[in-house]
Amino acid sequence: xxxxxxxxxxxxxxxxxxxxxxxxxxxxxxxxxxxxxxxxxxxxxxxxxxxxxxxxxxxxxxxxxxxxxxxxxxxxxxxxxxxxxxxxxxxxxxxxxxxxxxxxxxxxxxxxxxxxxxxxxxxxxxxxxxxxxxxxxxxxxxxxxxxxxxxxxxxxxxxxxxxxxxxxxxxxxxxxxxxxxxxxxxxxxxxxxxxxxxxxxxxxxxxxxxxxxxxxxxxxxxxxxxxxxxxxxxxxxxxxxxxxxxxxxxxxxxxxxxxxxxxxxxxxx
Length: 269
Ligand SMILES: Nc1ncnc2c1ncn2[C@@H]1O[C@H](COP(=O)(O)OP(=O)(O)OP(=O)(O)O)[C@@H](O)[C@H]1O
Ligand SMILES: [Mg+2]
Fold this sequence. Notes:
This protein is of the alpha/beta class. It contains eight helices and ten strands. The strands form two sheets. The protein has a six-stranded mixed β-sheet, sandwiched between helices. A four-stranded antiparallel β-sheet has the order 2-1-4-5, with helices on one face. The structure holds adenosine-5'-triphosphate and magnesium ion.
């Protein structure tokens, strides 16, 4: 369980501040965070991953206190983060070396590193490219390697900050598929997005506005929260759902993903 209490943060320069974030995120929950540009999503993800230190408030992952400087290594083992641009996350020329680097730093043996890399590459469907050159990979493949590197850590929490923004539609779908499978493996996922459609991937959505949490709702309650999402780029699948619902189509949002809605509509036609 992640427990965030009265978390606030201010950069040394500029006016922006993250204020009074209070959240509880259960194990194995898949949460999306959506908000306008500059609303503090990435700042939040950096605090939650231990990359940026904070002075006000508390973040606990079970009983691991993220403000405890002595626990830096433990924090890196429990929380992994994937960023928007895969190019900035891959340093080495070969997939294996790139993935091994972070694991070596965490102190794992060569054998353990090899096993973890194999397992993680299979999870992202890229085992065949274990010995490939990273320079030969597409952006989508690079992002899957970045995800695999995170998974190889066996984190309790995986944070993804707009991981699909630079990807083509096929690569996006591959990322969604990986996340769906991860959910079944018991990992807690915090997925930051600017694409409204992507909130359907998750169980729960938190809307950030000007450094504050504006709304927090479960997917089953999406239809009662549509007005809070009006600022985002509509029309999208969310407005389709809303219209279908108004017209009497019985949609169980609790279990719904983009994929499932497509299947549902297919059967009706
Ligand atoms: N290193 C920094 N120093 C000063 N201000 C910063 C720094 N990084 C971000 N900010 C400011 O903090 C605010 C929140 O930025 P943040 O990147 O967290 O927003 P975001 O919701 O992730 O936005 P986007 O959707 O564009 O990714 C912005 O006003 C930004 O200018
Ligand atoms: Mg951001």
